[in-house]
Write a structure and sequence with these properties.
Number of strands: 2
Distance between the termini: 89 Å
Strand content: under 5%
Shape: elongated
Number of helices: 6
Largest sheet: 2 strands, parallel
Helix content: over 70%
Mean pLDDT: 84
Radius of gyration: 27 Å
Order of helices and strands: HEHHEHHH
Length: 163
């Protein structure tokens, strides 16, 4: 009689473990992950090269957008300037900043990279505040990126941070 009882306990334990493992596996398979994308690590020179390419293309596009707007609006109103910023320039700037974030992080000297990217985020926020206050004046330029530019140049960038 003790043999029958002794064999029931391991069987129940195995089944319980299998049921729990199956439930966990099912939950893991059905979950969307919901977490942030993994950080991509690459060599410093590769990070700089990729970000510089992003900056070079973005700067060329932004200069062209500004030239086209200025050609069409020799004396823009506040509404025209705000509309241009909100619907044209800011989305392009936001995309450029986002693309730089997605480059990844260098395997070495992450502190300098992070300082430059954080300064870039702050500069974009400051620019948006300036645009809100006076969109026409901001079309003539802004000093909001000066600190970020210095940090990018100090890190070794050739295009990002170029005045």
């Amino acid at each position: 009689m003790t043999r029958g009882i002794g064999t029931l306990v391991p069987v129940r334990t195995k089944r319980s473990i299998l049921a729990v493992c199956g439930a966990l596996f099912l939950a893991a398979a059905c979950s969307s992950g919901g977490g942030a994308a993994p950080v991509v690590f690459l060599e410093k020179s590769a990070a700089i090269a990729q970000a510089d390419a992003i900056c070079k293309q973005g700067d060329a596009e932004i200069k062209q957008l500004l030239a086209d707007f200025n050609a069409a609006h020799s004396n823009p109103s506040v509404e025209e300037a705000r509309d241009f910023w909100v619907n044209t320039l800011l989305p392009r700037l936001d995309r450029e900043v986002g693309d730089i974030h997605r480059v990844g992080e260098p395997t070495k000297d992450k502190v300098g990279w992070d300082e430059a990217v954080i300064a870039l985020d702050k500069a974009l926020s400051q620019l948006k505040t300036e645009i809100s206050a006076d969109p026409v004046k901001t079309l003539d330029g802004s000093a909001s990126f000066s600190n970020a530019n210095k940090l990018f140049v100090a890190y070794g960038f050739k295009e990002c941070g170029k005045p």
